[in-house]
Write a structure and sequence with these properties.
Elements (H helix, E strand, L loop, with lengths): L1 H4 L2 E3 L3 H7 L3 E5 L10 E7 L2 E3 L10 H13 L6 E3 L9 E3 L2 H12 L5 H6 L7 E3 L7 E7 L5 E8 H4 L3 E5 L5 E3 L2 H17 L2 E11 L10 H4 L3 E10 L6 H10 L3 E5 L4 H11 L21 H7 L5 E2 L4 H13 L9 E5 L5 H6 L2 E5 L5 H6 L2 E3 L4 H43 L6 H19 L23 H29 L15 H20 L17 H20 L11 H23 L34 H34 L20 E6 L9 H6 L1 H5 L12 H4 L2 E6 L12 H8 L1
Parallel strand pairs: 2-14, 2-16, 10-13, 14-15, 16-17, 17-18
Antiparallel strand pairs: 1-18, 3-4, 3-13, 5-6, 7-8, 8-9, 9-12, 10-11, 12-13, 19-20
Protein name: P-type Cu(+) transporter
Membrane topology: Multi-pass membrane protein
Keywords: ATP-binding, Cell membrane, Copper, Copper transport, Ion transport, Magnesium, Membrane, Metal-binding, Nucleotide-binding, Phosphoprotein, Translocase, Transmembrane, Transmembrane helix, Transport
């Protein structure tokens, strides 16, 4: 619920802590790093490159008319620009944001797209080639009044320009557009736009004769020989809070990678504005071989340096996430978070350790595949998720640090005191109260600490995060030593210090003693002040930092202190307490305050000096991996490959059962022909198992596919059941633990075609 206030709708609770240990974030650009409010800021129309919106009078009338029609018709009719909700605000963009930017360009040219749409409603559109990640363009065909056809097309400039053979000149007339003209235009217009962080869109058209009608299914021929109308540069401003959020991630040891469909120059410019890369950095690599296949080895070489993935498809995003997760380039497995909003982003969101879906622009499929939904589609909300994740982990560690200290001291005091003095200084009801302090109250107090910016000042733990670090072990043992020393001092010499009767060796059913009450009260006071120490688990000295930002913690500490006063002064026999004098109370509080001073002493001791803590706080190392996971032939396979191998295993088991049935028939036949001469062997269709005999054998580990008694009954099979000397690594059956080998050492006899056994074998 608290994360929801920070625009993080958590669907899977375990994703919170996982996000706290993320080492990489693969983020979309549009809408996440940028505002997703597209605006045309530059245009190339009539052989002129305008650095700002051109004046309508400077554009040829014919070109302007074509431009308005091309944008109005060749856009989703659900996309529109609405008046602002508040006076003085920006117009509202509804629908596809890129198309909204183009429609806004029409309005900036003092034109209106609504009359065009009213003249040619959506149901009159003759043919529509919708936009997709492969086509990178959208085209719409309309029927002209004279029966001819006109197609309007728009899309990525470098793709659409390759299909243009003409371009409208300054007079609005088409002229030849040669490849060298295109190269010059790319160099002088498109690349400068892209370097300014603009997305370049080319708008074009083509006319078709009515007779014969073109083959609209032949898309390659239809989408060619176009006439370029204009090229526009659309700006999607970077969110103002994103650069600072990315700096926080980088300071926290998290690598941010931008995944976008823009071209390289646009992606580079946006990445520089966001702070993902810096000017002059080399970030372009190939991850495909000559055949176009993606190689994990190449991914391993480049992903540590990769910051921007341009002209990417949803498949490329999944490849990047899978490549980073599967990489063995670094010692620890990377924890990867990824953002997605489209239906095709589902596999990447599922593959990632934490998937973020966009709450505004995201599809239902993306939201279902995600772990956390960003309700504001903002990258800075991901940083807040990192803070909450680390805070959840720290809260668990704080509670463990406090509880283990209380447990160690309470168990040793209760057990040792009972053994030495025949009576525990901590009574049963008192232990229940201590239990309440160290379990319920402590968990509420320490687990409700709000996240702070300081959580982003340390590197992530990755997958092998230690639950109890060496610093925590030092704190636990240090405070336990302090508490045990004072408790045992009070137990054996406390009556002399306070000049009171000793509580040791008291007769059964004797009234509560001041001696043991002081011990109980001192023990609780030390836990209260140690609870303040437990707020810090990384060796920080200022344990009071931010304490008043957590009212629950302050309430529980003060409330526990007040209840302790009531228990000691008025608990009486039920709590085995005797009322204490003011000076005795002051001593108990003073010893409790000593916990804070002792905590500073512990903080000054370097953890590296404590040799016995060298192995503390470490999780599974490489040498502790089970042997079955170290087999060099074992490779990680995905779900589809597992299903394939499972099918192969079932196939081989089926063959094995047929073999077993044939052996049964042979045994039956041998008993039938006992004492008679066996018929001569003849080849028949059922002998495929015996000439040569195919046999299924198990490779290590041994997986029995048939009953062991079958091996005993068939000496020949038993004889040849040894594993092969060499294995083919490319054989999927061998990878699954099954070997298919041939045995030509013996031949089997077949029944004569006329015998009844022959028909039985054939049916089997």
């Amino acid at each position: 619920q608290k994360m929801m206030k920070d625009n993080n709708l958590v669907r899977h609770l375990d994703a919170c802590e996982t996000m706290g240990n993320a080492t990489a974030i693969c983020s979309d650009k549009t809408g996440t790093l940028t505002t997703n409010r597209m605006t045309v800021v530059q245009a190339y129309v009539g052989d002129v490159h305008y650095k700002e919106i051109p004046d309508p009078d400077s554009v040829p009338a014919k070109t302007l008319d074509l431009l308005v029609n091309a944008i109005a018709i060749n856009s989703a009719y659900t996309t529109k620009i609405l008046p602002p909700e508040k006076e003085g605000g920006l117009p509202r963009q509804v629908g596809n944001k890129t198309e909204c930017g183009l429609l806004g360009f029409v309005l900036d040219l003092k034109q209106d797209y609504e009359p065009v749409r009213n003249l040619i409603p959506e149901e009159k559109l003759y043919k529509v080639y919708t936009f997709n990640s492969v086509r990178k363009s959208m085209s719409t065909v309309i029927k002209m009044p004279d029966g001819s056809f006109r197609m309007y097309s728009k899309g990525a400039s470098e793709i659409v320009l390759k299909k243009c053979s003409r371009i409208l000149n300054a007079a609005g007339e088409p002229r030849i557009f040669r490849p060298r003209d295109r190269d010059e235009m790319v160099k002088k217009v498109i690349e400068p736009m892209a370097c300014d962080g603009l997305r370049t869109i080319c708008v074009a058209f083509r006319d078709f004769n009515s007779s014969p009608e073109p083959d609209w299914d032949n898309e390659n021929d239809i989408l060619s020989d176009l006439t370029c109308i204009c090229v526009v540069g659309i700006e999607d401003p970077v969110r103002p809070e994103v650069p600072e959020a990315i700096r926080k991630c980088q300071r926290a040891g998290i690598t941010v990678r931008m995944v976008t469909g823009d071209n390289i120059n646009t992606a580079r410019a946006i990445a520089i504005k966001c702070g993902i890369i810096h000017p002059g950095e080399d970030f372009l690599w190939r991850i495909r071989n000559e055949k176009g296949e993606i190689e994990q080895e190449r991914i391993d070489k480049i992903w540590p340096k990769l910051r921007v993935l341009a002209r990417s498809s949803p498949t490329d995003k999944h490849t990047l996430v899978k490549g980073i997760i599967d990489s063995t380039q670094v010692e620890q497995r990377q924890v990867v978070a990824v953002t997605g909003d489209g239906t095709n982003d589902g596999p990447a969101l599922k593959k990632a350790d934490v998937g973020f879906a966009m709450g505004i622009a995201g599809t239902d499929v993306a939201k279902e595949a995600s772990d956390i939904i960003l309700t504001d589609d903002n990258f800075s909300s991901i940083v807040k998720a990192v803070m909450w994740g680390r805070n959840v982990y720290d809260s668990i560690s704080k509670f463990l640090q406090f509880q283990l200290t209380v447990n160690i001291v309470a168990v040793i005091v209760a057990f040792t005191g009972a053994c030495i003095t025949q009576d525990s200084p901590l009574k049963a009801v008192q232990m229940l109260w201590v239990n309440l302090i160290m379990d319920t109250f402590a968990s509420l107090a320490l687990a409700t600490e709000p996240p702070t910016e300081a959580l982003l000042l340390r590197k992530p733990y990755g997958r092998n995060k230690p639950l109890i670090s060496r610093t925590m072990m030092k704190n636990i043992l240090g405070h336990a030593v302090y508490q045990l020393t004072l408790i045992f001092t009070l137990l054996f010499v406390g009556e002399k210090m306070f000049k009171i009767d000793s509580g040791r060796n008291a007769p059964l059913h004797s009234p509560p003693s001041e001696h043991y009450t002081i011990i109980f009260n001192t023990f609780v006071m030390m836990q209260l002040f140690n609870e303040i120490n437990a707020r810090k688990i990384h060796g920080e000295r200022n344990v009071f930092d931010g304490i008043f930002r957590n009212p629950i913690f302050c309430t529980i500490v003060l409330g526990t202190f007040a209840i302790q006063i009531v228990i000691v002064q008025f608990g009486g026999k039920p709590f085995s307490c005797s009322p204490l004098q003011l000076d005795q109370w002051m001593w108990c509080v003073f010893i409790g305050l000593g916990e804070l001073v002792w905590g500073q002493v512990i903080a000054t001791i370097p953890t590296s000096r404590l040799k016995f803590l060298k192995e503390a706080g470490r999780l599974t190392e490489k040498e502790e991996v089970p042997e079955e996971e170290l087999n060099e032939d074992v490779e990680e396979i995905d779900h589809a490959e597992r299903e394939l191998r499972r099918g192969q295993i079932l196939w081989f088991r089926g063959l094995n059962r047929i073999q077993t049935q044939i052996r049964v028939v042979k045994a039956f036949r041998s008993s039938l022909y006992e004492g008679l001469e066996k018929p001569e062997s003849r080849t028949s269709i059922h002998n495929f198992m015996t000439h040569p005999e195919f046999r299924i054998e198990d490779s290590q580990p041994h997986i029995p596919l048939i009953d062991d008694t079958d091996l005993e009954e068939d000496p020949a099979l038993k004889k040849n059941s040894s594993p092969p000397s060499s294995l083919n690594k490319n054989n999927s059956a061998i990878d699954s633990g099954i070997n298919l080998t041939t045995d030509t050492s013996k031949s089997a006899t077949s029944s004569s075609p006329g015998s009844p056994i022959h028909s039985l074998e054939t049916s089997l």
